[in-house]
Amino acid sequence: MPRIGVVLAGCGFLDGSEIHEAVLTLYHLDRCGVDTECFAPDRDQLHVVNHATGDPTDEVRNVRVEAARVARGPVADLADARASALDAVVIPGGFGVAKNLSDFALKGPECDVNSDLVRLIGEVVAAGKPVVAICIAPAILAAVLKRQGISGVTLTVGDDADTAGAVADLGQAHQPCAVEEISVDEANRVICTPAYMLGPGPAAVGEGIGRAIDQMMAWL
Q1: Would you give the end-to-end CA distance of the chain in angstroms?
Q2: pLDDT digit string (tens) for 171-211?
Q3: Helix (H) / strand (E) containing 91
Q4: For the packed helices 202-219 and 19-31, what is the interaxial angle rounded to 10 degrees?
Q5: Catalytic residue among 11, 38, 111, 135
Q6: 53-81 pLDDT tens trace
Q7: How far apart are CA 124 and CA 136, in angstroms?
Q8: Neighbours of 92 (CB within 10 A)
């Protein structure tokens, strides 16, 4: 049975993983009958946002602890994730990807990325295993690939001009896509879908994520 790693960045689209995207990812992986393990960094979030108002609060929350809300149970430390134990890696979106897995939200293409994520993706790509990146995650993946000395990989964040420009600045190729569509880079085993970079809701977002997971499964 394939074993898939899902990298989470907390819980909530404004400061963690986008919950619809994360749950739809887990749903489609379960539909395909794979074994799934969730990972997250064991660190405090950049900040905590009140999702009812959109305003930051004075709270301090741990990314890994918050990710367990989505996973409905224990989440492994991202530092312990190894490509040798996985057949593919999926990264749902949400601002937490740009705030807790990287500082892309603050620095754009000049961002730093969590060193454990850089290592894991480097191992996965070197082994020729698939990576699925959803929503804003392809922009962070672009930065990771650049650090691996890999350029020209086809990615998508939908049609967001600023984020697509950042992907290009990081040396990768951006392909505009509708929410239900996916970009596929056969040579590098990378699949992306725009999800809530475009919306409008879970049905369309879920269709794109389902196609991405199905393409991943076709490679396993």
Answers
A1: 10
A2: 999 999 999 999 999 999 999 999 999 999 999 999 999 99
A3: strand 88-91
A4: 40
A5: 135
A6: 999 999 999 999 999 999 999 999 999 99
A7: 20
A8: 30
> Alpha-carbon distance 11 to 196, whole Å?
15
Tokens coding 151: 């350029």
Cα angle at 103 between 93 and 51, to 5 degrees?
50
Quote the tokens at residue 42.
């064991």
Look-up: residue for tokens 């993946």? 141
| Residue whose structure tokens are 């992986």 | 29
Q: Which residues of 196-218 are buried (b: 16+ CB within 10 A; e: fewer)?
A: bbbeeebebbbbbbbbbbebbbe
| Residue 154, Ramachandran bin (φ over 0: left; ψ between -120 and 50: alpha; else beta) | beta
The question of whether 135 is a catalytic residue gets the answer yes
Where do the domains of the chain lie, and which CATH numbers do they carry?
A: 3-219 (3.40.50.880)
In degrees and rounded to multiples of 5, residue 12 shows phi and psi of: 130, 130
